[in-house]
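Email to the structure team, subject: NADH dehydrogenase [ubiquinone] 1 alpha subcomplex subunit 7 model.

Hi all, the expression group asked for a predicted structure before they design truncation constructs. Nothing fancy, just the tokens so they can compare against earlier work. One-line instruction: predict NADH dehydrogenase [ubiquinone] 1 alpha subcomplex subunit 7, return tokens.
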Amino acid sequence: MPYRDVSPFLRLVRQNLLGRTHTPALRQADKVGCRSQPPPSLPKGVSSSLSANYYYMRDGRRAVEPEEVVAINSSSGPTVLLSDENEAAGAVTVTAKKPKLPGVIHHFD
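Reply from the structure team: attached below.
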């Protein structure tokens, strides 16, 4: 069965105008190569089991906890970083960094 195309006269006109033979954008099944793939071999994960695989056990939103206070920032003193052992004994002070200023400014006037 011939593929859908224009008449031979219009095919010659198209070939002369393009300067090459026309490649149709439509794909025919007998001209396309085989694209079969082997089945995937994925490692076993959390969702691989067939039983006891409930959504609430896999839901990442349920693992979220309230935020922890890592540093105390006050306007009267320096920023204090807190440690895990004790807030007062393991506190570390951090000096505030000054913003970077540009170098020599050139005026074009």
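The radius of gyration is 35 Å. The beta strands are 71-72, 79-81, 92-94. Ping us if the truncation boundaries need rechecking.
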